[in-house]
Amino acid sequence: MLERRMSRHRPTESFLVGKIERVFGALGGRSLSRGKVAPGNRLALGIGDDAALFRPLPGSETILTCDWFLEGTHFLRDKHPADSVGWKCLARATSDIAAMGGTPRCFLLSLAIPEWATGAWLDGFLRGLRRAAQRFECVLAGGDTTRAEHILIHVAVIGEVDKRRALRRRGARAGDLLFVSGRLGEAERGWQIVRKQRGMADRRDQRLQKHLYPQPRLALAAWLARKRLATAAMDLSDGLSSDLPRLCAASGVGARIDATKLPLVVIAAPRQAETQKLPRQRDEALELALHGGDEYELLFTVPRRKELKIPPSFAGVPLLSIGEITRSRRIVVVGQNSRPQALKPGGWDPFR
Amino acid sequence: MLERRMSRHRPTESFLVGKIERVFGALGGRSLSRGKVAPGNRLALGIGDDAALFRPLPGSETILTCDWFLEGTHFLRDKHPADSVGWKCLARATSDIAAMGGTPRCFLLSLAIPEWATGAWLDGFLRGLRRAAQRFECVLAGGDTTRAEHILIHVAVIGEVDKRRALRRRGARAGDLLFVSGRLGEAERGWQIVRKQRGMADRRDQRLQKHLYPQPRLALAAWLARKRLATAAMDLSDGLSSDLPRLCAASGVGARIDATKLPLVVIAAPRQAETQKLPRQRDEALELALHGGDEYELLFTVPRRKELKIPPSFAGVPLLSIGEITRSRRIVVVGQNSRPQALKPGGWDPFR
Predict the structure, then answer these.
(1) The whole model's pTM is what?
(2) Is the ipTM of this complex over 0.85?
(3) 20 to 30 A Cα–Cα from A258, which one of A49, A61, A316, A340?
(4) A120-160 per-position pLDDT tens digit
């Protein structure tokens, strides 16, 4: 646990834990024991003992998920601002809670960092993490700290969902409509821009917001679960072409995507003289929508008879039907004037 | 989650997840959904969706804890057998559940490994981990896998304890007796031997068992919690001299340890001609008992009126009263013929 390695003889780690506790003081699990219970804070005991204690809501199931966030694999020290690293490591893991239709409750932060990162970098990281924790109403319950040559981050998030209401991957049936939230490819497009640019990404660049500060679709997913509108759901972390096959495999079905219905990213506003570039830009946007990873949008299936219950947008996020579930196990894309093409996984993979 | 990065285009990771699933098939969370519920297995959904679902026992609090286990910091690739790494990474985190008087339920395994480790090393690791999971009755619920240059392991364990029965650090009162389980210094002594030897530690060497395969004191701690015998408790992970001050600080008390009562390790059976070495060996054993880390024994305090309820041993593990809690906040050691000496933290610290 966070406090474990702290002692008078351990200046660096003690400093590190002290800093985390100061930043999270108002949010951390201590609040309950002091009688100031934050809404939704179900921690009976936070940082400072051997483990944290969480009080489950009667009638709920507990959702457990975790994610690595490693320097060099999931972020680059010289490209990604520290506060984006802080935000994104929690947002990513919290997106799995959304994928189940749940509500995040608390998280365990495990941090292993080199000496150089204990100053400005750590401040920025904790600032981003705290902002995400406040936004997602997810309190810090504990964790573990140690040192390492590179920055290693691990986040485990604990959430809750009403018993037997969790959105799973395996409920999709032939004929169900396939929906997606948001616009696909924006995060990947942001990453392309960051990769090409020199130095640190500009935190205010609008085109990079989804890459740097992704938003798990918590409210939408919780609403779908509560209203029993979705037969299956998952979050898009590796890209539609990698994730849709998983949902289909879990449900024992296939899918047909209508490429003309995909919510594409607008790559650039072409000048009048450059309209001949439009088709290429469309192809690029389509590629991004099909294969772009790191989106954290919600992919879900809805029985046809409930189609009209899905609004065109939810809390400002567009919802679009992009195809349907088929009995045949194939996953195909149909375009405007083209024959159906098989969809091949092309998303993000750390081992590639 | 474990399954997330798996696809046809990802041979290494898919292979890795497949291997983990095969090894944990009988133990993993799938059993419940198939109608075969293992005793204590409260998983409603395990590996293969966006997150795991855990059904909390009514009237229980959920215990959350996690630990790093990193190559170079917590274990050495050329010294520690892979199956010991597998056992110990789960034993360490599970010891925090014991420290709270709880029962382990399930765990999240996050593994980042280089290509070289996907063969024999992974097999050995999973064998040790599986053995520990069976022993502690703790099922694999999920996790995350990726690649890394060095072996990175992170384990989060979820446990349960009856509401308001958790053993905490802060309940010790002046006059309480200080107890410890087992023999102190054995793990550290094992590590000394491994360090001095060339090559891989001998898995069968009796002197190394506690260093390679530590045993969290789950049954003892759960009994203390159930019977309300302990006012405070914690596990000894960094050594008595580092951990006792934490218990005392949390309780706002001090402690006096009687060095003559410490359960010391037997360093070697001296030959008759070498009896002059005995005092030096005793000093060494005392050092190990006070400062040796990685023991995972239970340190707990008992009100004097309940002293006789503590048996001399529990499930084969000796229980010894080694001192008492004092009103003065100092932590001192008294010896056979010596004046009280202040106890200074000297346990393990990754930043030192």
Answers:
(1) 0.91
(2) yes
(3) A316
(4) 999 999 999 999 999 999 999 999 999 899 999 999 999 99
| Cross-chain CB nearest to B142 (options A58, A64, A99) | A64
CA atoms within 13 A on the CB side of A349: 19
Q: What is the rounded average pLDDT of the residues A73-98?
A: 97
**Closest chain B residue to A251 measured between Cα atoms?**
B49
Is pLDDT at B205 greater than 90 in this prediction?
yes
Q: Give a yes or no: residue B352 inside a domain.
A: no
Residues of chain A with C-beta less than 8 angstroms from the C-beta of B62: 53-56, 62, 158
Overall domain count for chain A: 2
Q: How many CB atoms lie within 10 A of CB A38?
A: 16
Predicted pLDDT of residue A19: 79
Residues within 8 A of B (CB atoms), A 229-288 only: 234-235, 237-238, 242, 245-246, 250
- Residues B142 and B191 occupy one common structural domain: no
**pLDDT number for residue B269:** 61
Cross-chain CB nearest to A10 (options B10, B142, B352): B352
Q: Tell me how far apart the alpha carbons of residues A17 and A143 are, in angstroms, rounded to a whole number.
A: 10
Residue A264: beta bridge partners?
A: A184
Of A5, A52, A163, the CB nearest to B350: A5
Residues 95-134 (A) with a CB less than 8 A from some CB of B = 96-97, 99-100, 102, 106, 108, 110, 112
Query: Is residue B171 a part of any domain in this protein?
Result: no
**What pLDDT does A1 receive?**
47
Closest listed residue to residue A60, CA positions, set A104, A3, A124:
A104
Show the tokens assigned to B256.
Answer: 């006096």
Residues A113 and A232 occupy one common structural domain: no
Structural domain boundaries enclosing A217: 177-342
Here the tokens at position A163 are 């018993």
